[in-house]
Design goal:
With 319 residues, the protein is an alpha/beta fold. The chain has 13 helices and 14 strands. The chain folds into two domains: 181 residues, Thiamin diphosphate (ThDP)-binding fold, Pyr/PP domains (Rossmann fold, 3-Layer(aba) Sandwich); 125 residues, Rossmann fold (3-Layer(aba) Sandwich). The chain is globular.
Length: 319
């Protein structure tokens, strides 16, 4: 066990993968200086510019090059800096990477991992603060991962690279400095949720940074005698229906909390599945359908907070 930040855990995972497998390469903007969040720190010195590749500022070029690399036997890890910039590479991700295996009868696979940090990035405004994971969950052919802890950012990145399929990998823009214990021998299974806190009165389902807000909310609720279970979904495609449904059966109440805009967010898919398969009372918490403002007072209006999550869970329990 070692204590690592969320960023260092990812750099360590990628370094271990590159040492073990010469076909793993990384490409994107600013990798040579360690990435803008330090998530590639030390890798250029260790592996050289042929495997840690600085690219032009062109997300479509990065995405297209990575698809070609993957189809010819490499395992590229693609850095798109933030998910907001991935919109410039949507054709390469959606029409090329996600569909190739299906369209050519499995003759080719695209084992690439596309790192696209999500979430509100303080005082970075509407074009740098989006959470678009539901867009990618909608696309057949993509795995969608959202690690919330340093341990998961190590283990899930390794699992993503080894999966053999294109993975939309969503780290959070404001988790990079989060520290935690990391067991580099602990595997992760994509599609398997984690019960972050057991409870009996209400289930809170979340992912990414909202997991930490949900745990804060659960602590506040505990002081009021409400015992909340918190489930870290970890991947939203495939998502762990069995764990969520089993928790719903125990508690009878489920709240889905996410940072993304609530309208058409992935929480709606979870709630619809629960409505079809359980008798639990259901609710959602997400951001309003509004751009993220630059000014702190405007930014605060769209943030999902522990207080908002706790209030929604309280209403469910006391209804």
């Amino acid at each position: 066990m070692q204590t690592l930040t969320y960023a260092a855990a990812a750099a360590s995972a990628l370094g271990d993968l590159m040492r073990a497998d010469a076909s793993v390469v990384a490409l994107g903007e600013d990798l040579g200086r360690g990435g803008i969040f330090g998530q590639y720190r030390g890798l250029l010195d260790a592996f050289g510019p042929a495997r840690v590749i600085d690219t032009p500022i062109s997300e479509s070029t990065i995405g297209g090059a990575a698809v070609g690399m993957a189809l010819t036997g490499l395992k590229p890890v693609v850095e798109l800096r933030v998910v907001d910039f991935a919109l410039c590479a949507m054709d390469e991700i959606i029409n090329q990477a996600a569909k190739n295996r299906f369209m050519f009868g499995g003759q080719g696979r695209v084992p690439m991992v596309i790192r696209m940090p999500i979430g509100v990035w303080s005082s970075s405004a509407a074009q740098h603060s989006q959470s678009l994971e539901a867009w990618f969950a909608h696309v057949p052919g993509l795995v969608v991962a959202c690690p919330a802890t340093p341990q998961d950012n190590y283990s899930m990145l390794q699992a993503a690279v080894r999966s053999g399929d294109p993975v939309a990998y969503f780290e959070h823009k404001e988790l990079w400095g989060l520290e935690g214990e990391v067991d580099t021998s602990a595997p992760a299974e994509l599609g398997r949720a984690r019960v972050a806190r057991p409870g009996r009165d209400v289930t809170i389902v979340s992912w990414s940074k909202a997991v930490h807000w949900s745990l804060e909310a659960a602590q506040a609720l505990a002081a009021e005698g409400i015992d909340a279970e918190v489930i870290d979904l970890r991947t939203i495609w495939p998502w762990d229906r069995e764990t969520v449904l089993a928790s719903a059966e125990r508690t009878g109440r489920v709240l889905v909390a996410h940072e993304a805009v609530q309208v058409a967010g992935f929480g709606a898919e979870i709630v619809a599945t629960l409505a079809e398969n359980s008798a639990a009372r259901l609710a959602r918490v997400g951001a309003p359908r509004a751009p993220v403002g630059y000014a702190p007072v405007l930014e605060a209006q769209v943030r999902v907070t522990p207080d908002r999550i706790a209030a929604a869970a309280r209403r469910l329990v006391r209804a």
